[in-house]
Specification:
Largest sheet of chain A: 11 strands, mixed
Number of domains of chain A: 2
Number of helices of chain A: 14
Mean pLDDT of chain A: 87
Shape of chain A: globular
Radius of gyration of chain A: 21 Å
InterPro entries (chains A, B): FA_synthesis (IPR003664), Phospholipid_synth_PlsX-like (IPR012281)
Helix content of chain A: 40-55%
Catalytic activity (chains A, B): a fatty acyl-[ACP] + phosphate = an acyl phosphate + holo-[ACP]
Protein name (chains A, B): Phosphate acyltransferase
Low-confidence stretches of chain A: 354-371
Oligomer: homodimer
CATH topology of the largest domain in chain A: Isopropylmalate Dehydrogenase
Largest interface: A-B, 69 and 69 residues
Strand order of the largest sheet of chain A: 3-2-1-4-11-10-5-6-9-7-8
CATH superfamily of the largest domain in chain A: Isopropylmalate Dehydrogenase
Structural class of chain A: alpha/beta
Strand content of chain A: 5-15%
Family (chains A, B): Belongs to the PlsX family.
Number of strands of chain A: 11
Subunit structure (chains A, B): Homodimer. Probably interacts with PlsY.
Amino acid sequence: MTKGLKLSIDAMGGDHAPDAILKGVDLFAHENPDARFILHGDQAVLDHLLAGLPDATNASEIRHTTDIVPMDAKPSQAMRKRGTSMWNAIASVKDGEAAACVSAGNTGALMAVAHLQLRTMEGLHRPAITASWPTPKGHCVVLDIGANVDSDPDQLVDFAIMGEAFAKALFGLERPRIGLLNVGSEEVKGHDDIREAMRLLRLYGATLGMDVHGFVEGNDISMGTTDVVVTDGFTGNIALKTAEGAARLVAAFLKEALTSSPLAMAGAFLASSGLRQLKARMDPSNSNGGVFLGLNGLVIKSHGGTDARGFANAIAVGARLASSSYMQEVADNLLRLRDVRTQAQATAAATGGAGEATPESDVASMGQAAQ
Amino acid sequence: MTKGLKLSIDAMGGDHAPDAILKGVDLFAHENPDARFILHGDQAVLDHLLAGLPDATNASEIRHTTDIVPMDAKPSQAMRKRGTSMWNAIASVKDGEAAACVSAGNTGALMAVAHLQLRTMEGLHRPAITASWPTPKGHCVVLDIGANVDSDPDQLVDFAIMGEAFAKALFGLERPRIGLLNVGSEEVKGHDDIREAMRLLRLYGATLGMDVHGFVEGNDISMGTTDVVVTDGFTGNIALKTAEGAARLVAAFLKEALTSSPLAMAGAFLASSGLRQLKARMDPSNSNGGVFLGLNGLVIKSHGGTDARGFANAIAVGARLASSSYMQEVADNLLRLRDVRTQAQATAAATGGAGEATPESDVASMGQAAQ
């Protein structure tokens, strides 16, 4: 999978950078000896850390820069500052040197810098950030989780196209089922925009041979009712953060329960292997790597607080996408859709209906919703 | 608390009605001998079930009707059908016979029938449905979770007023902290509507002496960052269903983990008392009773699939609200706000800003988001 694959790493981005970042690279390099890396960051600091990481050392070249984007940087600040480790990491993708960029830096800043350099794909209204959510059977792809603060029906269709290709590439699904997040599963539910989005999704989905399941509700995400759940960035961001909070609460309650008495503690000790299993399944670093979809280049956003294992997993997401036909498939689908869309929008405009594309809003506002 | 308190019960609403309903009444009556009940439903059926429930029998009078609202009924159907157990249960509140109505029937139907008979409170734009969400410290009040499919800034302010009074009445808080759900906690985050809502919330909150914490994110709900979380019905419904799904998933993973090996099972057995504790804390029936806020009368919606204990808890919510100054406090705050609002809206209109109230949309669409 990783033969001849070169990845661009923002070595200075993340709460535990560059230490956790380089250790993550070392983990991935150890398991994928063919992979190569361009590490963007402070030469002296990186050289010092690499001394103890032979696999990373052998697989990497360093591109020196002392400029970094602080974790609390505003997107607008990051966009004005060229030559940072984040900026250069994305430039390596733009220049075709690397197949994907992985960064644990500030999400809003990364999205803004990535969008500024790579631009939105031809025929796409807006990019989106996607998350992989654990389900009993595997994972559910949810997008947008925060690249935009609102999305019109046409943008939601774009998200469905990207989410489908993403699920195929990352999970090897032949025909992912697509769901549109709503307050009920019946077609009559929700506000006008969401019902119009479903109408377009069925119309365009038929052209693309997409498996459009229909509306899904919030609980369907964790149930894995569909492989892809499409929603606007506002709802998606709030829903997933609320769910993460609830999952953490249950874990906290469980810990309390298992330390509530000596007997319970003994039980917890006996069950510890099983409980470790549980911890591993809920560990965000095992489904790490939010991906910016819809740009002319692959950019993987790792959790800011990621550890080495989490960052290695984020690299793996980038490697799998880069060695898949993801980019091509999205481009093809958007092309195949162009005429159908122009037609539908003309009809809609004639009948005074919806369907018009909205202009791109200020790039600096992008990714503001993401955590 | 329940001295001289009379509650109106829709005995035929719910997946396990009337059995679970009457057993719930019996449980509550046993713990609150002063409480009285009007049971709406089929006399013969209810008499037969009451035979085994002495506490419920002594505290109840039956109002006979054979008409019911099916669990899959559309709001519009329920509204056209007078004389159902649901209709009559709400009528008892309208006529001043009962202090609150409790029903486990179809949410959309109940909301529509309740709104048709009780109407929205003077000075309020739209009613809302509220949920109590468990936190490490207790509960967080979240509204709207589905009475509306979208809400403008003025409606969100209404929700804050009702949520504050609800938290005071139900949890005895002196000055609940109010949060507005958004994609980030900084004031610049989110779309125009949500920022305008925060502006109004701070403006009006100052007049009402409200403790406005500011924006909160999804994970803040389970963390209990604020006592009240205000959001629109679309986002609130999806966020809470997503969180419920995630909590159920963790529980399922835990069960798997604790049955993964004989050792784990032995441990689970030893820890069973602690695990029962956990189950109890996560059991929805322990925080049962979504309340319809903003009508001229108290209507408590119990989970449709509730058991006897869950319904008794829903009755308890109604009893606590009915014996509190909740209704008066909301009415007073709306009155105190009227002049400030008129002024602000005039200014806004003059400067071409937001702040206008939207007309009530078709009542039949109400509650459609709620589960």
